[in-house]
Amino acid sequence: MRKGRCSKFYPKEFQDETNFTDNGFTQYRRRDTNIYIRRDNCNLDNRWVVPHNLQLLKKYQVHINVEYVNKSKMLKYLCKYVNKGQDRAKAIFEYLKTNEDEQTKDIDEIKEHLDCRYICEQDAIWRLLGFNIHYHWPPVERLPVHLPFMNIVKLQKNDKLKAILADPNNQKTMLTEWFEANKNYQEARNLTYCDFPLQWKWSTKNKKWVKRKHGFKIGRLYYVNPTEEERFYLRMLLMIVKGATSYEDIRTYNGTIYQSFKEACTARGLLTDDNEWYNAFNEAANWATASQLRYLFVTMLFCNLKDERKFYNKNWRKMVDDIENTLLIKHHPIKYYATETELQELLHMELEKILSKNGISINSYNLPQRNTQCFIGKNNHFIEEELTYDTDYLEEQANKMYFQLNEDQKHACHEIINCVLCNIPKFFFLSGHGGTGKTFLWNTIISYLRA
Length: 451
Hints:
The protein has 4 domains: 19-77, no CATH class; 140-267, no CATH class; 275-386, no CATH class; 391-450, no CATH class. The two termini are 36 Å apart. With 451 residues, the chain is mostly helical. It is built from 18 helices and 12 strands.
């Protein structure tokens, strides 16, 4: 109990079925059976029961909470977590320096920092026993997307430019060889470029597609930013066009050869509305963070999204995951759920920051206006950032660093701080070689002023 309330938000509400809240959390089924036990003058029924497993409780005789599903967005979190890499720690060795140390030791500050990788006992045993560190299923084939003669070529240190240009293998890619396979094999023409790895295998040695005898792979086209225009529209067409034998075939529709991939997309009805933008955003939402989705949305605004208000109203929820979690942590242990108005206000501020970095006002687009009545975001965010310093910590650090200054540095520190506090405009110039403490002196002054 904290301040007279349960920190885990019990008792819960009765539920006929397990479902998810609007925030993605799970509400387990809790039937109203009219059965309860009496404890400390309180009736404890199903609303007070934590998720558990009877077999584990009986076997270990300890309190064990078991949750099958904790949050509807857990899959997205796990996919990001298992790919984040090893846990790491940075260690710094510090020791008190005496005058004798400064005269006799040549201190290498770079070597004093260690970048360490932490492996727990479970990871260590797993590696010692030789088990697989990771396993991927189903297998995925990444497919490049490039415009004519704009494929990536790997260069070695001693390669000659003329030899690279003369080598025909450097012009062969998965995409160009897909064209060749469609020319030579009738059965290959029934598949799009994206579906091709299901029945065909890429031979890295020979740089060509070979008919599969067993197994399969799922094709995935590399992500292309919408700002790349023609390459983006080429990727769009490669998702639906079958049996193309050249770039010209991809630009052809109903017997008409269009001059650009964008014109071909328009002729096929792919750009008559914002459907492709919705598809691109939904695809990115499966793996991207909320912050990345906000940048993608701004990019779409730059690419002339036709109905930005309608797009925003449908997808704004996907762009506030981190904002919502920050509010929950900020108000802990009180269970605080921000209203839609508050979340959209904070989202509006984040989008405004991104657009302002590109010299564009958010008012240039048909987006909801900020709610001036909302209590969130009334202040200037630059001022808010300046007011979020831990003054006690900065004062402690400033005092600690001050005693490490020499007499000349202390004199400069006093002069600068006095001018700031007395509002006396002056110009100061610090002259000295690298490693003489200019940055250290400046950090000391800033710490004092902010404290």
